[in-house]
Every structure is written in structure tokens, then in C-alpha cells.
Amino acid sequence: MTHPNPFLQLKKNSFWEKSDTPVWIASSFFLQRNLASDPFPHKMDSGNSQRILGALKQSLLSSEYLENPQFFEFDAIKTTEKEFLLEHFLTTYESQNPECKSGLVIDKSGTFLAMINGEDHLVLHSIEAHSGWKEAWKKLVDIEDYLAKNYTFAYSNKFGYLTSQLANSGTALTVQAFLHLPCLIELDQLDEVLIKDLDEEVQVNGLSGTYDFIGDIVIIENRFTIGLTEDHILEAVHKTATKLVAHEKELRTQLKETPDALIVDKISRAIGLLKHSYQIDTKEALSAISFIKLGVDLGWIEGLTDQDMNKIFFEVRRGHLSLSSKEEIPQEKLAQKRAEFLQSALKPITMNL
């Protein structure tokens, strides 16, 4: 009997289509923990890594806080599936090269992922596709509390929770807010706003981990984890993100009242590019999708919703495209397949300005 691909099921039931705000598209939380009783992953032998993997796997699969969780051995996951997970969870590449026996636990909702024996014994990751973050944060806290009843985590009175990278110790909490800020970026106001409103305890990056804001996505993230409480970190990220969202919304309101020729031109060009390209790379596609997503929110484009555009934003990336294909897409054909997908997906849209 052939079982459905669980990653394809995750893709089909993606929570990204449920995002309720065009600007603050997601909030993400990471908690890193290590067991006090064992060496950290990079110093473990195969016996220890297998034992810890089995124990943490069983605990997570038994948790009442997860919805039908599934376990995957990291080595058994295909490269395209790993890439899909990176894209779906908006996560980083640090966990992609574990040095010992490792695995992932993912729940049915697609909003929770646990990495076992990656950089640390355990990295808990929860993500929420809208501006509120109480649900995702509570889920992470509940799971960590549940695990803490059965395991003693490595902790120092001086440094807090200990991690493989000292800079991540303390609360060992990373909070990220993913914002879509095309108006601030394209009207050259982002740097000015950041100088005025950026809290010194937070930093700004793009999807690539650099100051290159691909798709006009800006990530607000806490800079420090040592010497700060979890509430302090949450407040610092939330405060900065809220200010940036307010500035972006103000510019969008002004555009609705008085359209800017530069923005109108970029939106119309984006439609032409995506509807008529024979091939297109990821970065160029995401940039154009950003303008169409903005046009939808401004009411200048009809035929698709903001939720539709969120889905398209993910679908054009390599992991998603490869997973959707019935056969592996050769590298030299990806740009063409991406263009074909976009032509089909964007057929319903029309510009009504």
C-alpha cells in the first residue's frame, strides 16, 4: 500500500494561506535546549546520539500539545524535502548538517518542528502566520514545560540555559517577526525609520540572512539571549515590528489616496514579467510577487487574494516546486518550470487602476 507523501500533505494543507494580515505575515520562535546528563551533539558518540534521539522522539510523539506528530530520520529525508521544510518553516541552514544520528518531529498543523541532535540536543520551533503570536508562543512554552518534567536541561547560574554556541545561551530564545515592507523599501524610507525606531536589542535581516531584502521581506529578530528575560525579548521584537508595520500601513494609505507613479509602474511591470517570462529565477520572481501582493492589498489588482499571493510566494521556491513535480526537476529546467507555474497561477489577475 502506497502512503501519501507527508511533506506533500503538509504543503497542500499549508497554514500560510490563513495569514490574516498583508504586512506582518508571520511570527517565529526557537528554543534551544541540551540535556544536562550528556555531551553536546558535536561531542557525542553514536550510542549516545541514538539513545537521546529515541528518548526525545518518544516524548515528543506522546505530547498532548502536538497534533498527530510524525517523526522523520534526518538521513532518510530527501534533499528536496529538506529544502521544502526550510522554505515552509522559514528556518535557517544551521540544522541542515547534523554531525550525529538526528531526526525531526513535525505536527499535522505544520506550525511546529523539533530538531533532535542538530546543533543542540533539541531545538523547538513554532511559527504563526499572522501578527498575533500568543498561540505559537504558548505552544512552545507548554511543550518545553512538558519536557522539563522528564529531563534536566543544561543550565548555568551565570549563563542560563547552555547551548552549543555561547552567544545563544541564556534564555536560548530567538524571536522573529516577518514583515512585508515594499513601500518602506521602494520609497527609500526603511533606513530612516530603522535609525529612528530600531531597538538596540534587535537586528534586521532578509530571507538570506543578510541585509538583502528579497521579496521585500524584513525579519526583525532579537540580537541577544544572555542577560535578558523571555518577556523582555518578546517585547523588544514586538515593539520594533509594530512601529515598522505602522509606518508601512501609513504609506499604503497615502498610496491609496494618491498613487505614486513609481510604485504603479513597478506593479504593472511585475504583472507583465510574471505573465510572460519563459524562465525566471527565484529572486526576480519573489521581487515581482512582492509588488503584485502590494497591488492586491491596495485594491489595484483583482482576481486573487492576499492569501493566494502568500501561497504563490512559497510555491515558486525550489523546494516547493520540486515537491509538486511528479519527477525531479533538473537544475537547468527550474527557471522554466517556475515561469510556467507563475503564468498559470496569475491568470486570474487584472489591474484596475
In round numbers, the mean pLDDT is 91
Q: Given the helix and strand composition, which structural class is it? A: alpha+beta
Helix residue percentage: 40-55%
Taking pLDDT < 50 over at least 5 consecutive residues as the criterion, the unreliable ranges are none
Give a short account of the largest sheet.
8 strands, antiparallel
Q: Order of SSEs, N→C?
A: HEHEHEEEHEEEHHEEHHHEHHHE
Query: Count the strands?
Result: 12
Describe the model:
By secondary structure, the protein is an alpha+beta fold. The chain is built from 12 helices and 12 strands. Strand 3 (103-106) and strand 4 (112-116) form a beta hairpin.
Give me the secondary-structure topology.
Elements: H1 6-12, E1 24-33, H2 46-61, E2 70-73, H3 79-88, E3 103-106, E4 112-116, E5 122-128, H4 134-148, E6 155-156, E7 160-161, E8 173-180, H5 182-186, H6 190-197, E9 202-205, E10 217-222, H7 230-257, H8 261-276, H9 282-298, E11 301-302, H10 306-315, H11 318-324, H12 334-345, E12 350-351
Antiparallel strand pairs: 1-5, 1-8, 2-3, 3-4, 4-5, 6-7, 8-10, 9-10, 11-12
List keywords for this structure.
353 residues, alpha+beta, two-stranded antiparallel ribbon, 12 helices, 43% helix, globular
